[in-house]
Amino acid sequence: MIDRIDRRILSILQEDCTVPVAEIGRRVGLSTTPCWRRIQKMEEEGVITGRVAILDPKKVNAKVTAFVSITTNQHSEDWLKKFADVIREFPEVVEFYRMAGQVDYLLRVAVPDIEAYDSFYKRLIAKIDIGDVSTTFAMEQIKNTSALPLQYVAAEKPRAEER
Amino acid sequence: MIDRIDRRILSILQEDCTVPVAEIGRRVGLSTTPCWRRIQKMEEEGVITGRVAILDPKKVNAKVTAFVSITTNQHSEDWLKKFADVIREFPEVVEFYRMAGQVDYLLRVAVPDIEAYDSFYKRLIAKIDIGDVSTTFAMEQIKNTSALPLQYVAAEKPRAEER
DNA sequence: TGCGGATGGGAAAAATTTTCTCTATCATGC
DNA sequence: GCATGATAGAGAAAATTTTTCCCATCCGCA
Questions:
Q1: N or C: fewer beta carbons within 10 Å in chain B?
Q2: Where does the HTH asnC-type domain start and stop, copy by copy (chains A, B) (predicted)?
């Protein structure tokens, strides 16, 4: 189980995973070793799935975000598998959801500009037959974080009477 | 400028930033020092904005994704500032865009379940008067990566005749 | 009372990052 | 053609950090 201290460790690591373990320990009131062991455990359990570098979209020329809503009449397992495989080939697609409601699928696409989006779109529809597509562009990214909320993590270690 | 080697370094670091510099150097055909210096430079220039731990949404009980489309008649600078400040207080909101088109703002919200979304929604509208709100839920996250596409990064070092 | 499991701590070993010094290459000006 | 300075690469050493090892403490329970 994840306790209060683990949660604080996760909070630190979600913001900046270059902080030395000794410093994390200091902040959460532990020495290096137990702090290190907690981090190890959370990696083994899959709570922490990895550590990655975050890039500036402007600096890598991918500052335009497009949301692509897809409504299709194709609903077979096979078609979805094919679709998912095609999408995975496009690094421009950074998020891909199957939706409830009117829209069947939603993509978030990162490109330099509208022209590049159009080129992406043509390459996409050349690869697979999708249905109705509707695209909207973001003017401004006001917040975009990889940090998930931690207030919902499963409660403290269950006490004896709860087991 | 970012050259071919820098791009390969970024590609590695976007997937996994725990790879030792010596190993990155080996993969891109450089020794440790020049590879380290390239990474340093990209951090100083702000190409790399940070390194973070990625958590498993299931394991931290935030596996439900809701997209919230907001249409408002409030368009003043002040209102947006207030709105942005309110949003930043909610760790459930992981993405926040100002949009072109019909919808004015789009939020992506991470919560454990529909009930938690409803609670979030009530807390949000208690804090600020927003206009029309429409929420759709994702059934499945097929792809979600922090890695931006790198094929658009500004061209190779300009050669003499191009300057 | 004593045992086993879980958790914390200090110190040492191992690995990695960071610095320092030295070369090679190349475009440029003389 | 040849010095010169800027740019980029390399190896070795120093500094820092991670990782391991061994031991102490606490707690529930038989």
A1: C
A2: 2-63
Q: How far is the CA of B47 from the C1' of D13 (A)?
A: 30
- Residues A25, A84 within the same domain: no
Instruction: Please report which residue ranges of chain A form alpha helices under DSSP H.
Output: 4-15, 21-28, 32-44, 77-88, 114-127
| Shared-domain flag, residues A49 and A68 | no
| Dist. CA B43–CA B122, nearest whole Å | 40
The share of chain A scoring above pLDDT 70, in percent, equals: 94
Q: Which nucleotides of D are covered by protein (CB under 7 A)?
A: 8-12, 16-22, 28-29
Answer yes or no: do A93 and A125 share one domain: yes
For residue A109, name the pLDDT band (cuts at 50, 70, 90): very high
What is the spatial distance, in angstroms and rounded to an integer, between the CA atom of A51 and the C1' atom of D11? 30
CATH code for the domain in which residue A73 is found: 3.30.70.920
Distance from CA of B59 to the nearest CA of A (A): 5
Please give the tally of structural domains in chain B: 2
pLDDT digits (tens, 9 = 90+) for A25-45: 999 999 999 999 999 999 999
**Which residue segment(s) compose the domain that B117 sits in?**
64-137
| pLDDT for A129 beyond 50 | yes
Residues of A in contact with B49 (CB under 8 A): 54-56
Residue B47 is nearest to which of A17, A60, A141, comparing CB atoms? A60
Residues B71, B107, single domain; the answer is yes
Q: What is the pLDDT of residue A51?
A: 98
Bridge partner residues of A136 (DSSP): A67
Domain of B16, CATH number, reads 1.10.10.10
Binary contact (B84, A142; C-beta < 8 A)? yes
B62, with CB counted inside 10 A (0-12, 13-18, 19+), is buried
φ/ψ of B41, rounded to 5, equals -60, -45
Block mean pLDDT (10 aa), chain B, length 163: 95 98 97 97 97 98 97 90 96 98 97 98 95 96 97 65 31
B111 CA: distance to closest CA in chain A (Å): 8
Q: Are A81 and B47 in contact (CB under 8 A)?
A: no
